[in-house]
Design goal:
467 residues, alpha+beta, Outer membrane efflux proteins (OEP), six-stranded antiparallel β-sheet, two-stranded parallel ribbon, 11 helices, 15% strand
């Protein structure tokens, strides 16, 4: 009987070595599944497609545009006029717009300024903004912002991954802790039941007082209750873990009853490596949230430049060379004296709208820079705190591993004294309770240790962790 009880008390170190037919879901396998199949992971990839779509839209502002305008009037069986104008406009990055077209007008009551030769007129020209829009205009601003958004979308995708894998990882280690706690309580209940039967048999034989059976029975009842609470926590942890379990095709999965995490002695404590500490000095580069803020500031800076450009007056120059077609060549016989030109000028007197817009753009940049500084300080602090927890839990686990073994030996000695009549059931229960608490504390510290590594990776923006 003593040998059976001793083996059960040493459950974490003995039972784990036995053959176990159940399926083991490791932390790495779980995280890979989440990264590959979770809906939020797929949503993260949509950020890249969104950025590419915005860039394509912005580039569309520089697409050549064909146009055709036909206007006719008929009245009292007469054609008053027929005005047709067709052509092609080609905008460019440097503010120059090229155009070319063909015009043919006729009619009884055609406006004289619209008169053209019977074969029509060809034209080719250019327009240039030499005031507002010379260095940057709305089209160029949108394209620059779209290119920045491409880089920002990559950072946003990494941020979604970072948040998703952090929450999933926290759920896994909570599941790991609750499962191993259930095993400890199951072992403790089995030991209490074995003891109760032993004490009851001893009382019937006159070797033990009957009052000991009451105490042993109470111990069984208490451990039943604690086991039920542990099983409830495990069921809730399993349900939470199932939230992150998906298969290809967005099919949700439920955690199978026979699936379990690693046993506690299969998991080694972790500590901060050199690379992890070095990332503290480059958190502004590694963390996707901070990179996203930096890209946001770059976009705001482009907007500020465009607002600054709008302070200038609008001064647009246009020139079109025209020629009537001769034979098959539109510009045979071209004369440089045949052209149209024009100039457009406008400028608000007080520029209140433009100056106000520029001031708002500057304030947005200042606000974003201050927010970036604040976020960087907060993230750096959280990363340092996580590394400190990681270091501390590693030290505590080294101590507690020895504490668990010492409590097991202490309990074994107390049981031998009890069987020899030199100790009481109360002392045995007390030693056993201490041993159970050290086992639970070890599992708790082990889960906390791995959560600290997960938190450090999360605060440094390193999830998914590079292999």
């Amino acid at each position: 009987m003593k040998q059976i009880i001793y083996i059960l008390l040493l459950f974490p170190f003995v039972l784990i070595g036995q053959n176990d037919p159940v399926s083991v879901l490791t932390f790495q396998d779980f995280m890979e599944r989440v990264e590959e199949h979770h809906p939020l992971s797929i949503q993260a990839n949509l950020k890249i497609e969104e950025g590419e779509a915005k860039l394509r839209k912005a580039r569309g502002n520089f697409d050549p545009k064909a146009y055709s305008d036909v206007s006719q009037k008929y009245f009292t069986d007469k054609q008053y006029y027929n005005v047709s104008n067709s052509g092609l406009k080609i905008p460019t990055w440097y503010g120059l717009d090229f155009s070319g077209g063909y015009t043919q007008n006729d009619g009884v009551f055609l406006n004289p300024e619209n008169n053209t030769p019977a074969a029509g007129l060809w034209n080719a020209g250019v327009s240039l903004s030499v005031g507002q829009g010379l260095f940057i205009d709305k089209r160029r601003a949108e394209l620059k912002q779209a290119k920045i958004y491409i880089k920002s979308s990559v950072a946003e995708r990494e941020l979604l991954y970072n948040n998703l894998l952090y929450e999933a990882g926290q759920a896994y280690w909570g599941w790991f802790e609750s499962y191993n706690s259930v095993l400890i309580y199951e072992s403790a209940l089995e030991v209490a039941q074995q003891r109760y039967q032993s004490v009851k048999q001893g009382a019937l034989l006159g070797d033990k007082p009957f009052i000991d059976t009451v105490e042993a029975s109470i111990q069984v009842q208490n451990r039943m209750i604690t086991l039920q609470e542990a099983e409830l926590n495990y069921e809730n942890a399993s349900a939470l873990l199932s939230v992150y379990m998906w298969m290809e095709g967005l099919v949700p999965l439920e955690l199978a009853p026979e699936t379990r995490p690693n046993f506690s002695n299969e998991i080694e404590p972790v500590e901060a490596d050199v690379d992890l500490r070095l990332n503290l000095d480059s958190v502004s580069i590694t963390h996707p949230m901070l990179r996203a803020y930096q890209y946001k500031i770059e976009q705001l800076e482009v907007d500020r430049k465009w607002k600054q450009e709008q302070i200038k007056p609008q001064l647009n120059l246009k020139y079109n060379a025209i020629n009537k077609p001769v034979g098959n060549n539109a510009f045979d016989g071209y004369n440089i004296n045949n052209y149209t030109w024009g100039v457009e000028f406008s400028m608000p007197i007080f520029l209140r709208k433009e100056r106000g817009s520029l001031e708002l753009a500057k304030l947005k940049i200042n606000e974003a820079e201050l927010e970036l500084t604040s976020k960087e300080a907060a993230i750096t602090y959280k990363a340092r705190a996580a590394l400190n927890v990681l270091l501390n839990t590693k030290r505590q686990l080294t101590i507690y591993e020895r504490t668990v073994k010492d409590n097991a030996r202490l309990l074994d000695g107390e049981r031998k004294m009890f069987n020899a009549g030199e100790s009481s059931l109360f002392m045995v229960n007390s030693r056993e309770s201490g041993y159970i608490k050290t086992q639970l504390k070890y599992v708790q510290l082990l889960a906390k240790n791995h959560k600290a590594l997960l938190t450090a990776d999360y605060t440094l923006g390193l999830l998914p962790r590079k292999k």
